[in-house]
Specification:
heterodimer; A: 233 residues; mainly alpha; 9 helices; 80% helix; elongated; B: 261 residues; six-stranded mixed sheet; four-stranded antiparallel sheet; globular
């Protein structure tokens, strides 16, 4: 069997399941540290989600355009659509747009900080595992396998962090909105909008962890297997 | 140790290819120059050596002699500045990353000074990892992995993680892992340096046993004089050059002579 494989020069298959297994175990064994990395993503996504869901909730209340809700909205400094049937003034629209761009700026900053955090944590993880990576390369692991290992690890962290972040962000927003608007929040609950925001948050959270892990994963894959032979550390 | 049995079919397989003095690794005028802080360091100054299939070869030399550099060349881990290294008649310098990975996976088994088992995997998984890279199915690799673990006397401990094993046991797992894909060459980098005298001797005996039973070529870099008595040939490296090559029969006379003094 093996002789056949040797003679035929069968290509080294890319054992995805093995990569999955190893990366999950590596996460488990460094649970404490991966928790810290993950908490960075949790915070960033919670912020993102709270901003988005707040926009959705208030937008939905505003669109309801009921005088009692409009009163509450105005009390909280939110631009309303004024009287029923009348379009919002240009001034109000401009102010809304300005708020949005400020929000976008804040969100981008927080996500950037998050990516840097992930990259840092993954670099540490790579440095810590030089010998392990070198050994795997000596055993015949391809660069792509090593890259897969680290990207998967980071994706799992990203996904877990994002899910927790969504729950935290949404809960916070809803609690705060209930304080201001009471049960109106649930009367005009923007289910579709919230779901859409959650989906967008999952995509961005996972994508960010992938981006953060790219450079460290590349660095790990390009490592020379001789490193495994070094006796120090 | 007595329970280590040899699978009969294994022996047959390897005896066929076991012709007289087939060269498995050949180096021609291998030089290696490192540039460190602007100055050139000549780690190797042209080494010619032929390593024959099925032999047990030790490379000795003080640290800084270029021994490790030469060892890494022979194992396809480093490329020479000048000269050629052939492993199984393949010029290592000509290989791309993919082919190198293939070579390391199928033709060479590595044993490290500090064992280098993957800490998150069990003994069996460590042994089967190279087989996974070689594309064996999980059933195939599990059966073969268990056989190998039994051969090195650790059949009972296949589900233990490396940190649950003693140093000697870890090195046994590493020996099993090195043999996973029936390599042509096993490279052992000071395999006894992190072991006590007794365990070190056991590992050397195990390597010799594997060498005799499966006909695999064993190349080891070592300081350990216990290694000399089992080696077919010993190569001394000094100042980046091959100082001398001694056959075992000459070696025995030499050691007797030294002891006699």
């Amino acid at each position: 069997m093996t002789e056949q494989a040797l003679a035929g020069g069968r290509t080294i298959s890319l054992p995805m399941s093995k990569a999955l297994e190893i990366s999950i175990r590596s996460l488990k064994i460094r649970f404490g540290r991966s928790l810290i990395t993950t908490s960075g993503i949790v915070l960033a996504i919670a912020f993102l989600m709270s901003v988005w869901s707040q926009n959705e909730v208030i937008g939905s209340l505003r669109d309801a355009n009921k005088s009692e809700i409009n009163l509450e909205l105005q009390k909280n400094g939110v631009e309303t659509l004024m009287a029923e049937g009348v379009d919002a003034s240009d001034e109000a629209k401009a102010r809304l747009a300005e708020d949005r761009s400020k929000q976008t700026w804040l969100i981008s900053l927080s996500l950037l900080v998050c990516v840097v955090g992930i990259a840092n944590a993954m670099l540490m993880s790579v440095t810590e595992r030089y010998r392990e990576i070198g050994t795997m390369k000596c055993l015949g692991a391809l660069d792509s396998f090593i890259i897969k290992l680290f990207l998967l690890e980071s994706t799992f962290q990203g996904l877990a962090g994002t899910l927790v972040g969504i729950v935290v962000g949404l809960t916070m927003t809803l609690l705060l909105a209930m304080l201001d608007y009471g049960m109106f929040v649930f009367e005009y609950f923007p289910t579709g909008g919230i779901l859409r925001s959650a989906l967008a948050a999952i995509v961005s959270g996972t994508l960010l962890s992938l981006i953060g892990a790219m450079l460290p994963a590349y660095k790990a894959a390009k490592m020379e297997p001789v490193e495994a032979m070094r006796s120090d550390t | 140790m007595t329970e280590t049995t040899v699978a009969p079919d294994d022996q047959v397989e390897h005896n066929e290819g076991d012709e007289e003095k087939r060269t498995v690794v050949r180096t021609q005028g291998v030089k290696k120059i490192y540039t460190m802080g602007g100055t050139e360091v000549h780690a190797l100054r042209g080494v010619d050596l032929e390593i024959y299939s099925g032999e047990y070869l030790s490379i000795m030399g003080p640290s800084g002699s270029g021994k490790s550099t030469f060892f890494n060349m022979v194992g396809g881990l480093d490329k020479p500045t000048a000269g050629k290294v052939y492993i199984d008649e393949v010029d290592v310098a000509q290989l791309d990353a993919y082919e190198l990975a293939w070579l390391r996976c199928r033709k060479i088994g590595y044993i490290f000074q500090s064992f280098n088992l993957i800490p998150v995997m069990t003994a069996l998984e460590n042994v089967t990892l190279p087989m996974v890279f070689a594309g064996l199915t999980s059933d195939e690799s599990r059966d073969k992995g268990m056989d190998l673990l039994k051969k090195v006397g650790l059949g009972e401990r296949h589900s233990h993680k490396p940190q649950e094993l003693s140093g000697g046991q870890q090195q046994r797992v590493a020996v099993a892992r090195a043999l996973a894909n029936d390599p042509a060459v096993v490279l052992a980098d000071e395999p006894t340096a992190n072991l006590d005298l007794q365990t070190g001797t056991e590992i050397i005996e195990l390597l010799r046993e594997m060498n005799e039973s499966s006909g695999v070529t064993v190349i080891s870099a070592t300081h350990d004089h216990k290694m000399l008595s089992v080696s077919d040939r010993v190569v001394w490296i000094k100042d980046g050059q091959k100082e001398r090559v001694v056959l075992r029969k000459d070696l025995e006379i030499e050691t007797v002579h030294v002891e006699g003094e």
